[in-house]
Amino acid sequence: MSGTTTAGxxxxxxxxxxNRWVVLVVLCISLLLVALDATVLHxxxxxxxxxxxxxxxELLWIVDAYPLICASLLILFGTLGDRxxxxxxLLIGYGIFGLASAVAALATTPEVLIGARALLGVGxxxxxxxxxxxxxxxxxxxxxRAMAIGIWTAVAAVGAxxxxxxxxxxxxxxxxxxxxxxxxxxxxxxxxxxxxxxxxSRGGADGPWDVLGALMAAGGVLGAVLGVKRLGAGDSVLxxxxxxxxxxxxVLLALFVRRQRRREHPLIDMRMFARATFSTSVGCIILAMLxxxxxxxxxxxxxxxxxxxxxxxxxxxxxxxxxxxxAAGATGxxxxxxxxxxxxxxxxxxxxxxxxxxxxxxxxxxRPWLLTTGFVLLGFGLQTTLFGAYESMLSEAPxxxxxxxxxxxxxxxxxxxxxxxxLLGSVMNAAYxxxxxxxxxxxxxxxxxxxxxxGEAYQVADRLGGSSGEMLRSTARHSFVHGLHVTLLVSAGxxxxxxxxxxxxxxxxxxxxxxxxxxxxxxPEVSLPASREPAEATGSGxxxx
Length: 545
Description:
This protein has 545 residues and is mainly α. The protein has 20 helices and no strands. The protein has helices at residues 2-11, 19-39, 45-52, 56-84, 86-105, 110-138, 142-173, 178-181, 183-197, 211-232, 240-262, 276-306, 311-317, 319-358, 368-396, 402-432, 434-437, 444-450, 454-464, 466-501. Helix 5 runs antiparallel to helix 9 and helix 10 (211-232) packs parallel to helix 16. The protein starts with a helix and ends in a 44-residue tail after the last helix. 54% of the residues are buried.
C-alpha cells in the first residue's frame, strides 16, 4: 500500500523528468473525449430524429445544449480550478462526463437527451481549461511547453475530425446511443489513472473566489453564444429571440469586466488584455474559428447532399484534414522556435486562405484529389495558426492565472465557432435562397420552404415529383454550390484579415528577458521575465485543455 502511494506521489512531482510526458498523455486522452463528443452526434441526428421524434426546437437544443453550456461555464470552472485545485476540478469533470454519457445513451425522450447533453457540457467545461492549465504548470520550460501544446492541439483536431467518422460507423452498425456509450469505459479507466498520476496545482489563493463574477461571466457568455447561434440559424437581426440574449450577454460581460477591474483579487486579471501578445492571440483564435467552423458545417452538407456520400464516407473524406493537423502539431514547436510567433500564425492564416480558395473549384461532381489537397492544406494551415496563438497566449499569462487564461482561450474558440456559423451561415443563405423563391413552375410555398436548406429542398422536390420536382432539385444543387463558393471567398477574406492581425505578435519566441534564443530541450530551464512569471518560484509545489 505504501509502495503504491509513494509511486503515485513520485509521478505527481513537478518536473519529474519523463513523468510530465505521462501526464501529457492523460491530459490528451481527456481532451480527445471532449473534442470527440462535440462532433460525434452530428451524423447521428437523422437516427435520433427518427427514434425520439423531437420537435424542431428540441432537435436544435439536442445539438446545441452541449456547446452552449460548455462555452458558458469555461471561465467559471477555469478560475475555480486556479483557486481550489485544477486536478480536483478535472477529476470531478471526468465523473460528470461519464454519468451524463450513460444518461444520454439510454435516453428515451428528447427532454432527457437535452438534459444529458447539458450535463455533458458541464463536464466538458470542467475538463477543457483544466487540461491546458495543468499542462502550463507541468511544462515550465517554454520550448518543451510548445512541443506539449503542439501535441495537445493536434489531439483536439483529431477528436473533432474523428467524431463524424466514428459516429458514422457506430450509427451504421449499432444504434445512435452508442455514440455516447463509448465514453463510459474510457472515463471509468481515466478517472482512477488521473487521480493517481495527475499533479495538483493552484494559482493565487488570495481573497475570496468571486462567485457573483463567475455567474456573470457564465450568463454573459451563454447569452452571447445563444444569440449568435440563433442568428446563424436564420433569425432576423430584429428578432428578439436572437437580439435579446445577445444584448443581455453583452451587458453581463461588460459588467463582469468592470467588476474584475475594480476588485482587489479578480477572477481574471484584465490587465492581460493590455498585452499585445495576449489580446492578439485571443483575436487570432476567434478569427481562425470564425472562418473555419461555419465552412466545415457547409462542407459536410456539400459532401452528403451534393456528392451524396454516406456519413461514414463523409467522415473518411475529412481524415486528410486530421492527419495534416497532426503533422502541424508535431512540427509546431520546431517551427515556432525557428520562425517565431508572428510568422507562424500569419503564414498559417495565409496557407489556410489558399486552401479555402482552392476549394472554390469544387462543383457538382466529385473531385477527390482536389478535396484531399484542399483539406490537407486547410488542416495544416489552421493547426499552425491555432498552435502559435495558443502557445503565445498561454506563455504570456502569469502561471497563477493559467486556468483563467486557458478558459479565455477556450471561450474564444467557442465564440469564434458560434460567430462563424452565424456569419458564414448567413452569407450562405443569402447566396443560396434567391434562386429558389421565385422559380417558374414551382408553387411559391414550395420554393420558400426549399430556400431554407438544401436538405429541405430535396424533401420538397420529392413531394412535388415530376418535372417541377426535378427542376427544383437541380436548381437547389446549383444554388448551394454557388453559395458555397461565395462563402469560401468570404472565409478567405477573414483568414487574410487574421494574417494582418498576427503582425502584432512578437517576431521571435522569447524565453528570457534578453530575448535570447530558446534553450535546447535538455538544457536547464529558463524562466520568463519576472513580470510574466511572478509566482513560478513560489507556486507552493505546483505540479500542474
